[in-house]
Here is the input.
Amino acid sequence: MTRYQHLAKLLTERIEQGLYRCGEKLPSVRVLSQEHGVSISTVQQAYSVLEECQLIISQPRSGYYVAPKKATPPLPAITRPAQRPVEITQWDAVLELVNARLDTSVLQLGSGMPDVTQPTLKPLWKIMSRIAQRQDLQVLNYDNLYGVAALREQIARLAVDGGCQLSADEIIITTGCHEALSIALRAICTHGDIVAVESPAFHGTMQTLRGLGLKAIEIPTDSVSGLSLEALELALDQWPVKALITVPNCNNPLGFIMPDARKQGLLTLAQRFDLAIIEDDVYGELAWEYPRPRTLKSFDDDGRVLLCSSFSKILAPGLRVGWISAGRYHDRVLHMKYISTGSTATQTQMAVAAFIKQGHYAPHLRRMRSLYQRNLDVFTYWIRHFFPSGICVSRPQGGFLLWVELPEAFDAVRLNRELRPLNIQIASGSLFSASGKYRNCLRLSYAFPFDERMQQALADVGRAVDIAMRACRPEAREAGPAEGMQEPALANNPSIGRQTV
Ligand SMILES: Cc1ncc(COP(=O)(O)O)c(C=O)c1O
Here is the structure.
């Protein structure tokens, strides 16, 4: 047996004997190397063996922790929304979430903000200041309606990775993906029309439907394979549905990637019912799999897919640079773009074009993908540790959003209120339903590096969830705390585990 195997065995025995308890921080690499008289790399090798066996988890900049004994939580079941078109509610709650975005005293566990602090974004700052220094009049003048040509060329190149052959002329720049979705809907629908949406779905899409006087028919959606084609077919048989809005790659909020065969099946169905498809691809490039998954648009041979995206989730939402490639609806979309914002501000378009052209985009994307994937491991580890059993958790295939489903009687809106004094905000599942369903679900973000504040917050949320779940299940009130809710973390971090709610 080699030295590292010997050390791995010893540590395994200690964990099994409960000498290191779940959630507890293990000795640092340096301490172990001194204690056992072995090299740093021997300890690292031993730890990576334990990591592979899922006995421990490494947390960047923090160290190694013993993994919870609890089994990985099951996946959320396929959703069962109302089977008729409904009017959209929830605006007040969405406004509250959006208004809280800039409050730095609140830990935004429910927000859709990417991490914009990474060094791979530094060239973007430099490019933006160079553009300002050049005093290029293009920045101050009106742009044409289509947007900066250099950017559209770069977008056409990037689209190839998703399997799409687009020319720059087929692309219209928008103010974020939000505007792209809104002008797509306006180009296709009129007041009172019915639009099919995944259920749950991004609240921005839902509120756009509301603002345009459109009704939503929510389609059951699976957290692994996406929209149910069978349910969509039934809806199309029954109702005059004008369009479908879908996020097939790294879905918000469920995190799935729709398999290619289902994407093809969806296109066939759309052709049969002459349905327009608005494809939202804002997270598509953040898939763990490489090459990135294909867009629906790449399967489209009769121009019915309007592909909408932006640089908000990959680079930064403050740039407000998005785009649409609208196929057969191009001219109408251009008109809606004109009446919506006229032309889009040019400086950030020019900056993004230069950032891509100078070769900064691909390394940044690689870094963000691996950071988010790593964050997901750490985040789900702590959810397993701090949250009670009896929950279902999505397994995102990309992006930075997690969906947690709790028992039916649970109320996440109330949970959010209870977390307010602790300066923590989650997104209640009800924001992602047209009619306020999914109050028993939460959307959480793992975009940001996991630090002590985050760990503390997850401990607080887990404890609050545990208390609320006990209140939902009277028979459980008598039982002791759920596994993973006990004290181990207290041993190492006095701030964790404090009674907060
Ligand atoms: C699925 C989805 N589509 C669109 C948007 C809006 O993107 P943008 O910020 O580019 O307008 C978001 C933002 O959260 C989103 O999650």
In short: Residues 479-501 have pLDDT under 50 and may be disordered. The pocket of pyridoxal-5'-phosphate is lined by residues 112, 176-178, 202, 204, 247, 252, 280, 282, 310, 312, 317, 322 (CB under 6 Å). Residues 361-386 form the longest helix (26 residues).
